[in-house]
Every structure is written in structure tokens, then in C-alpha cells.
From TrEMBL:
UniProt keyword annotation of Hydrolase present: yes
Organism: Anaerolinea thermophila (strain DSM 14523 / JCM 11388 / NBRC 100420 / UNI-1)
Gene Ontology, cellular component aspect: outer membrane-bounded periplasmic space; plasma membrane
Protein name stated in the entry: Glycosyl transferase, family 51
Catalytic activity: [GlcNAc-(1->4)-Mur2Ac(oyl-L-Ala-gamma-D-Glu-L-Lys-D-Ala-D-Ala)](n)-di-trans,octa-cis-undecaprenyl diphosphate + beta-D-GlcNAc-(1->4)-Mur2Ac(oyl-L-Ala-gamma-D-Glu-L-Lys-D-Ala-D-Ala)-di-trans,octa-cis-undecaprenyl diphosphate = [GlcNAc-(1->4)-Mur2Ac(oyl-L-Ala-gamma-D-Glu-L-Lys-D-Ala-D-Ala)](n+1)-di-trans,octa-cis-undecaprenyl diphosphate + di-trans,octa-cis-undecaprenyl diphosphate + H(+); Preferential cleavage: (Ac)2-L-Lys-D-Ala-|-D-Ala. Also transpeptidation of peptidyl-alanyl moieties that are N-acyl substituents of D-alanine
Chain ranges of the Glycosyl transferase family domain: 150-257
InterPro entries per UniProt: Beta-lactam/transpept-like, Glyco_trans_51, Glycosyltr_51/Transpeptidase, Ig-like_fold, Lysozyme-like_dom_sf, PBP_transglycosylase
Amino acid sequence: MRAVPLALLLKKRQRREWMRRKRGFSPFVRFLMGLLVIVLLALGAGTALTAVWMSQITAGLPDVSTLPDLLSPSGEGVFQPTRLYDRTGQHLLYTLENPGLTRRTLSIDPARPDHLSPEVIRVAIPLLDATFWENPGFDASNLLDPYPQTIAERLVLNLLLDREQPDSRRALRMRLLAAQVVSRYGRRQVLEWYLNSAPFGHLTYGIESAARLYLDKSASELNLAEAALLIPLLNTPALNPLDAPAAAKENQQAALDVLLEKNILTPEEHQRARSTPLRLRESFPESHSVAGAFTTLVLDQVAARLGRQRLERGGLRIITTLDLTLQQELQCSVQAHLAQIQGQSYQAILPDGSPCQMSRLLPTRPPVERASEALTASALVMNPQNAQILAFVGDTSRAGEAAYLSVHPAGTLLLPFALVTAFARAYSPATMVWDLPQDLSLPNLDGTFHGPIRLRTALANDYAGALSRVLQPMGGEVLWQLAQALGLEDLNFGSRSGASWESARFSLPQLAQAYALFPNMGTVYGVQMEDYRPLQPVTVLYVEDGQGNILLDLTQPQSRTLVSAPIAYLMHHVLSDESARWQTLGYPNPLEIGRPAGAKIGRASRGKDLWAVGYTRDHLAVVWMGESTPESQLPSLRVTDVAALWHAAMQYVSRDLPPRDWEVPAGVSTVQVCEPSGLLPTPACPQVVSEVFLTGNEPVAYDTLYQVVQINRETGRRATVFTPPSLVDEKVYMNLPPEALEWAQSQGIEIPPEKYDAIQMPLMPENAQMTHPAPFAMVHGEVIIRGTASGAGFTFYQLQAGEGLNPQSWIEIASGDQPVKNGVLGKWNTTGLEGLYALRLQVIRADQTVDTAILQVTVDNTAPYVRILSPLPEQTFTLKPRQIITLLAEAEDTGGIARVEWWLDGQKIGESRVAPFSLPWQAGEGQHTLLVRAFDAAGNMGETSLITFRVSR
């Protein structure tokens, strides 16, 4: 019984002892114990974080064991230059090297037969890595510096990490690899590898090649002065003796001064080296390419992806998109065509001695005055379905091809892209424009003006003045937006001014890429060289290193849809309309190739730069011709000359392919319209044509360009109700705006008379008159007729209306048995009526005599058709402060538009009275609503639906 209480007592005593000891711990001890726990936890967490961090640093770290193969003189590494091949990989196009210089490796061991001059080692180590023989391969004092401090770091950065971004991660990876390579291969091997592989500028790698290139001697023979010239190039390879001889000599003198300060040189050695003459080369032949301009484009694209240093270092095999046979045919044809235009002979033979087939497809050129000797041409052929450039001949004169990538003013070749944007804003190929005399840098090719024409006709014939009339109210923004997305970027577009397109300059690859939008129905293909940049044409299929590893694969291009298929089809439909070009180019002409194709001629610089661009489903070609001396004249160069070369190229590449046409995409409709107004036909329309529209954008208004006017054949004035019917003739006239009257007179086009026939009935009797509406007025809706019906013997009056100039029947409007004097005679409801009407007032008196008054009016109850072209519903503008947005609308009415009102956010902000109807508006930030109202001469109003758009900064 006592055992249980005793056990409980012992437990209580133990508990009290533990509590006493706990209370006995000092606060400092408890603090230390807590701190210890925290430190242990932190160390554990830090270890885990360090492990994660190190795994990120070392992830994908290159293996230093690859260096011996990469640096082997007998392998395919840095001692073999980069080579470019055609698309088959069988034909060498270009070797990226200094011709005649074989890359060799020399030992740093003076006991070896082929060894470096000891002066090279003596100069290199103090200038590049003073602690080279002591450090572990890296500089521990600058662990996070992404740039190399030691020779080992330079080596691994050049050969293993050259494509990594210069950040702290690269810094640590570089130093890890530097330590590994020194530990594994030793300092002497690291130094030898570096000096034999490092870049010395001007496509030169390794000090042996540098010595041969700049000094025409071996690196084993270099003296102190020469070593001091070459070693600084490792820091500034661009300042080499060929490209910058003065800067190279300055750097040599500075290097000798540093060596003196570090006591590497004695004063006597320093002075002797400074005064030692340097026998430098002044020039060196460059490597020749089969396709100079194309090669430049290839090298730029590869350098953008792999880096210029990796490209020039060597060991790469680049398989390009070039079709060598097509390239040679195009080169031969360009030369043959230039010779033909200049009246010279040329033997059109390919390099293998076979005849040039493409040149035989050049259309015969009639004998004219010989062209300038300064004439230059270039041409490009591309596959629009994958954006691969198949052939590219850069600017070529009779002296040969330039190897650089040139740009030229594109001029009217840019206008289709502006009109594509306009098509999205309710314009169509049927939209009427006026081709009228004006001050033009690019007059019409046929030397005449054509008055009212469709946009289709203006674009097909390159009527720059007429097209400018359309673009001007829309502003440069219309062209800028799509051009930028297509990669047509030029400083002239920076201001986004309306006239900037006339001087913007682009290369043939840029324009080919842009025009591929049309055969691809709104989609472009290509390769993106930088983030957020437009796609570029493809010049490279793949790039591999000496071990066969694929470093860059561009066989599958990227794609972007920039324009909807229906809008792209509308432009293609215009560009493929052969008959639309006949009035300028004639029939047949070089832009016709016997199969479905789209084509466009272009002009710039007052006609001194001429273009032809066009496509089938399978190929696209761009041709430019111009002058290398701007001050000379080319009186005999014609657009058909540049089109002829395009014709030959397209005929050649299409020779074995079946013709393929385009399907009409959903969202496109065909409507019969009046030529050239593009509106619905009326009986007065002289010609009806088919036109394509975006579904929902078909015309709803009837033609207003042509009108039937009744005239008195004897007086030539407009007939009235008083003109004897036997003298009335009906004639169709153009409804011309004031600015077109002079043109119409010069073309012998009859202008409708403004005055009405002077033949009048006797004056209205004093007691039977109509004073409102006025004679020949335009009326609509309910018309209040005022006047007088009174006088002696008044019994009653009748008010009647009859249709036409000489009504055959009359309808009573009103009547009254009470006299009216200068008051309301009646109200005429004209709902449903249109056209000419006569009003007749008859006052009947007690003696049965009748006084009559007649009045002629025109009834117009059709409200104007109006729609907003810009902005589009829900469109967002991103603008600079105080920038102007041009509001644009289209309005049509048979009786003419009196005015157009602009209502922004519920407030009227302006009026337009002359087409094209536009209003410059200083944009205000935020969301806005826009409503447009149009009024005709009769007072009818038409209005658009309310649209919403936004302006942001």
C-alpha cells in the first residue's frame, strides 16, 4: 500500500529538481543556446541553398576535355576557317579567311623546331597576366567580374563560353573552367593554346597567322618591337595594323612603356624597341565569294545567332539556302541585260561553259538611245512559302557585283502596304480616286492624267499622284504600322510623316520579305534574329561544327500572320490583274508570264530608281535598276527594262512547275459596280465591272459620278418645266468636283450646264404665286408651300404636283375655298418620292377663269451614306504627347454632300465640306466615342453608329 505513494513522491521530487535547474540557467546561457540552434538551422538551410545555387552555376558547364580536339591543327576546330556551301552542301561558296594564310600552331618550347619567339612570351605574360606562373588559373580577387583577368580565363571564355551573357553566373563558370584547365593541362599548355587560337583582328586567329598577315614573317622570328605590336591586339583586335595602323602603333608604344615600368625591359631595350622600324603590310587580298551580297547577308545572320567571334574563329560549316545554278543564271542574266540596254555585246555563258538559259528569256528590247554607263542592277529570287533566298545578285554594273548589302529608295513600291491598311478601314479596290494634274516628282508613265479612276487602276499603273490623294488624309501612320511589322524600318519612317515613304530606303531582301505577305495570304515566314524583331528572310539551312554538331538549325521557319486572308486577297487581286496594267504597260507586257502571278512596278527618285516585284505561289522575285552616279541622266531607261529582267527570272524558275492559282478565301465577295465610281450601277452608268470587296463592305449607295441631265438642245441650258418638250434632250454628264473642271476641259469632256433654261412663261399672276420653295430648290420630307391665292372673284384654289419636267398627270396636294395671301397654301408629303417634280397652283375664279403658277423642284429623300474609315472600332492608338490623329470618313449622296460633322464624346468638334472628308484632331488620352453625320443639299442627314476607341501614351 505504501509503494504507490512513494513512487509518486519520487517523481514529484525529480520534477521539482528539473524546474529548479531550469530556473537556475542564466539569461546569457539561454541566449547562447538559442543562438546555437539558429546557427545550426541557418547552416543547414545555407548548405541546401548553396547546393542549389552551385547546381545552377555548373548546369551545362562545358567539358574542358574537348579542348585538345578543338585546338588540334589536324582537326576541324579553330585551325580550319568557317566555310559556306550552297543548299546541297556540295559546292563551296566562300571561305571566311585571309586567302593564302594557313593557320598553324607553334610551340612555346624553344627546344622544339617550330617554336614561338621568346620575345612573344616575354611580352605576353606581363601584359596579359602578370601572375600567370603562380595563380591557379583564375583571379580570386574578382570572382564576380564577368570579364577575364587571366590567360586561362581568356582561353575558356573564347572557346567554351563565348555565347554566354556577361553576368556573375558567367564569371563563376569561367573561373571554374579556368581552374580545371590549368589543373588538368598545366600552365605551359594553356599559354600555348591561347597564343595559337586567340583573335588578332582582321579574321586572324593565332599569333602565327597574325605575324604572317601584318608583318609577312613567322611568329618564330618576331623581335621585341614586333611582339609588342601584336600582343596588344589581343585586347583591341579592331585596332590592327591593316584596319587602324596609327592606333596599332600607338598601342605598341604604350605596351613598351608598361614593360619598362614593370622592369621587364631595361631602358636600353625599351629605347631600342621604340626605335626599331616596323615593316607593315598596307593591304591584303580578300577572299572572293561566288555570291558577294548573299554571303554578307549569311554572315550577318549567323553572327546574330552565334556571335561574330564564334563565326570568325572558324571550324564551322554553314549550309546556305542558295541554289547555285539559279544564282549563276541570275548573275549571267543581269550582266546580259545591262549589256543589251547599254548597246554592248555580252557572251551569256555560265562558269562551266554552258549557255545561260535565263538570259534567253529576256524580252526583245526595241532599239533606243543607249543607257548610261553608270547603270546598275540587282535581283533576288525567294521561295515565299518558307522565306528561303534561292538567289541574290547584289548591285551589279558591267564591272561586276558589289559584295555589300545595299539599300535604295523604294518609292511607290511601298504603296500596296499603305492600301492594305486602308482596306481594313473600309476602302476597297473599287474606291474612286481622282488622277488630276499636280506638282509631282513621279509623273504618270503615260504622260497624261485620267480623272476619276478606281484604286485598282491607280495602283496597277503606278499613278503616284492619285494614290497620294488617298494616303494624305490618313497620314503616315497608315503606312508606318504595317511596314514596321514587316521589317521595313528606315529612319525616314521615324517621323511618321505622310511624305516619308517617298525617300525611305530598303534592301532587296527586306522588300522580298514584305511582298511575301501577298502570295501567302497575309502570313509571312522567316527567322527572328532578335527578340521582338520582325522576321527576316532565311539564308541559312543549318550550321555545324567540326564534330558534326548542329549549332543552328533554320530549316523550319517561323511564321506570323500580319493581315487577314481576305484583306491580303484584295491586294493580291489587284496585283494579279493583268488587264488593269494595259493602259500604261500595253499588251502584252513583261509583267505577264503566262500563269497566275501578282506583280508591281515601282519608281523613286524622280524615276531614277526603278523596281519590279512579283510572285507566283512558288517563287517571288525583286529587281532593281538605277544609277551609281545620281547626277547623271537615264533618258532611255524604262520600267519595262526592269520588268524584263523580272520576267526572265520568273519564267526560268517556273519552267518545270505546274501553274497554281489562289483560292478565294471566305470573307470576300464580288459585286457588279459602276466604273470608275465603284458604286452600284444606275441606268446612266456607261460601264459595269466586277469588283471584290470584304464581305460586309460592299457598296450600298448608287453611282453619283454620272447623272442624266435634261437640256434644251437649242440653248444648251438645263431644261425647265417651261421648255417645250420638243426641245428637251437627255444627256449623261460627269458630276465633277471643282478641282476636276480644268482637267475635264483639257480632255474635251462636256461639263453639265449650271444655268437653267431662260425660256419662261409669263410672270406669275399677282394673286396666284408660290414663294416657297424657291425655283429649282432641293426639297425633302414634308414641304411647306407658301404663297398667295386670292383676288377678285376668288372661288377656290388647287395645289398639285406632277413628276418630271412635263408631267403627264397631276396629283392634288391641297385645296382651299378661302383666299390665302402670303401664307401657307399646303403641305406636301414627299415620302417615297425622288427626282424632278413640278408644282402647279391654280386659282379658279367666279367667271371660271383660271390663274396658274408653276414651280420646278428636285425631291431628294435619300439620306447620305456615311461611314467612319479611321479610327476603327475599339482601336488603340499609342501616341506621343500632342500628336495629331486624322479622323477619316467616307460620304456619298446622289445630290452631293453639303457637309460632314464630327461628334467626339458627344460634342461637335468640327466640319468637313470637301472630300476626302477628314479632320485633324489633337489626341487626348483616354477612351473616346466618335459619331459622324453627313448632310446633303436637300437637308437629309445620315449618321454612323457610335464607335469607341482609346488613346494611350
